[in-house]
């Protein structure tokens, strides 16, 4: 973490703009890592023509950009049993991987999806098995030359969601047993579970940790604030990451671009202590 180029930013910070306009803004602000979040105004990435994607890749090559993709959340459910929802999800994810491989993305972020009862052990177990099977299939879509990693992200404790408890994600990684599958750890989502969980969960996912999603909140809502503006214990988190030699990707995921800039400044200052 020597300078800003060590970090990526999510296009989530510019959802009010079209994806093309958002990328222009991020390039103007000299970000060297960009994670395209395929929701709202930026969901159309999957519909871009190959000419548009070639232009994006050329921009990235000229500027030295490391791309990553956050796969769609809406309408996707890797935890679903066989049927139309699962088929549609797999088609969407395969399209994400096709684009990710073309752009030489570092990773693709995926949510595990939903089950009928997130607190029922049998429901969670079946959901974990379904996600694991899906990821096993999706890894075969990646060429041996591709560096792209498939990652599952811990989510807020919303009704029905799978993966709010990082235990589920660790199980998925253990079931798939592939170096192409890892975990994106969202510190803000973890902080919503209970005080202290952000540290406890980080320790649990460390063996499978590929990337971080960084923002702050007060433990009540997923506010996506600038780091240091909430109550997440970042000093302890940074210390734990440093002690364990984390060498993955640092992605700032705030609601506003200014908050992302401030977050990087504070992380660099804290990391230099």
Automatic annotation (TrEMBL):
InterPro entries per the record?
IolE/XylAMocC-like (IPR050312), Xyl_isomerase-like_sf (IPR036237), Xyl_isomerase-like_TIM-brl (IPR013022)
Coiled-coil annotation: which residues?
none
- Which residue range or ranges hold the Xylose isomerase-like TIM barrel domain? 30-255
Which SUPFAM superfamilies does UniProt cross-reference here?
A: Xylose isomerase-like
The UniProt GO MF terms for this protein read:
isomerase activity
Q: What is this protein called?
A: Sugar phosphate isomerase
> Gene3D superfamilies in the record, alphabetically?
Divalent-metal-dependent TIM barrel enzymes
* This protein's UniProt keywords: Isomerase
Superkingdom assignment: Bacteria
